[in-house]
User: Which sequence fits this backbone?
């Protein structure tokens, strides 16, 4: 195989492993680029095509259904989807994409003549792609069912932005570190910004100095608008990769815990670069001893992660749906455990990178119904952060779908502050 065909073959292998076997993208991607010993330019190309094929997965299915009357086999569908994305969304030369896709089809046992004919037919006859309309019913049934369980007033902005490339948002250790930053940016608070350049993270200014970390604007808000988190004992019960704890480590005694040993390794790498050295534990949050009480327990709970769909487009691409029964039970159990670890007049900050009702409002309302010694402390915007009033519900929760905010794309996210009163 020539190098160009080899990159397309690797793309096919990565996508088929995710689609059929539900592998995590980062895991299979790293495996394949190591296996084939690609250079940096080839790695960037593969990453770009894979991510955009998954982001445009629903678009591709609609396009292919218009031009292919028979039911496509999985290998045919994956190969054609990748080619459609390269030609129409990444604007690569059609003849080159068709030739290399045909070469890969020979390698994987798919009829080359079929692939060639379908792609040429689409190229010659497709109308304006801007007229392609994505509706809720085009999504996986599990997502449709979850959305229909709650309010759908966010649906329009979600449908318009779910497949967009994510914006890069950085949070800084201090105002001084922010002032020393030398990349084009748009300020989002007195210690954070949306970065206006497309660069490898490690090539951004002052990466090696550990002055900042990557954290989505939505997930930054709960702690950024809390002006009174100082000199407190805090437990971050599901801490890795660490963004929320990093926000408060300079002014508080924070214990970081996570059940996942691999995520702990990543957490330690981040802490080393940022020159932080807090206590780190690798325990199951549900088995933590309850004799020690904290002023604040941060619970960034495991969830479907559907709010991060732009960064993790495999969520809709995988054939296997999230196990909501298991996730919801874990969310309830961790929230109940947190209630036993927080002091009187202390609070739990519950968070999920989801906007689905079953992982957000349902969990909190059920908790408050059973735990009558807890109440909601409403979030309030402050002058140091971009005006986020539109992201705060009447009940005082932070709740947003993935959307465009101040000309940047932010993740879907939910958070509630629950105060204990004994």
Assistant:
């Amino acid at each position: 195989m020539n190098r160009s065909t080899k990159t397309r073959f690797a793309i096919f292998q990565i996508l088929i492993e995710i689609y059929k076997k539900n592998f995590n993208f980062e895991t299979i991607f790293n495996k394949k680029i190591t296996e084939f010993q690609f250079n940096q330019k080839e790695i960037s190309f593969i990453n770009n095509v894979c991510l955009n094929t998954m982001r445009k997965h629903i678009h591709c299915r609609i396009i292919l259904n218009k031009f292919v009357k028979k039911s496509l086999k999985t290998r045919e569908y994956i190969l054609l989807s990748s080619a459609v994305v390269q030609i129409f969304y990444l604007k690569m030369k059609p003849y080159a994409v068709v030739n290399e896709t045909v070469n890969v089809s020979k390698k994987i046992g798919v009829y080359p003549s079929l692939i060639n004919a379908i792609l040429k037919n689409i190229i010659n006859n497709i109308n304006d792609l801007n007229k392609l309309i994505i509706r809720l019913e085009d999504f996986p049934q599990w997502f449709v069912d979850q959305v229909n369980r709650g309010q759908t007033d966010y649906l329009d902005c979600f449908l318009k932005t779910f497949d967009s490339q994510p914006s890069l948002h950085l949070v800084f250790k201090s105002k001084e570190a922010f002032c020393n930053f030398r990349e084009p940016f748009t300020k989002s608070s007195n210690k954070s910004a949306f970065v206006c350049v497309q660069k490898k993270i490690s090539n951004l200014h002052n990466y090696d100095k550990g002055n900042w970390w990557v954290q989505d604007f939505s997930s930054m808000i709960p702690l950024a608008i809390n002006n009174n988190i100082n000199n407190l004992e805090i437990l971050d019960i599901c801490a890795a990769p660490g963004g929320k704890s990093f926000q408060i480590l300079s002014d508080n005694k924070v214990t970081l815990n996570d059940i996942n040993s691999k995520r702990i390794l990543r957490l330690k790498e981040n802490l080393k670069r940022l020159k932080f050295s807090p206590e780190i534990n690798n325990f199951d949050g549900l088995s933590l001893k309850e004799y020690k009480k904290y002023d604040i327990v941060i619970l960034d709970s495991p969830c479907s992660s559907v709010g991060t769909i732009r960064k993790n487009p495999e969520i809709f691409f995988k054939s296997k749906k999230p196990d909501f029964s298991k996730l919801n039970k874990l969310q309830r159990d961790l929230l109940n455990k947190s209630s036993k670890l927080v002091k009187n007049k202390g609070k739990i900050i519950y968070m999920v990178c989801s906007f689905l009702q079953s992982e957000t409002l349902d969990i909190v309302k059920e908790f408050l119904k059973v735990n009558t010694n807890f109440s909601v402390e409403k979030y309030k915007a402050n002058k140091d952060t971009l005006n986020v009033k539109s992201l705060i519900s009447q009940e005082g929760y932070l709740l947003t779908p993935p959307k465009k905010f101040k000309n940047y794309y932010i993740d879907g996210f939910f958070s509630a502050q629950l105060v204990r009163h004994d």
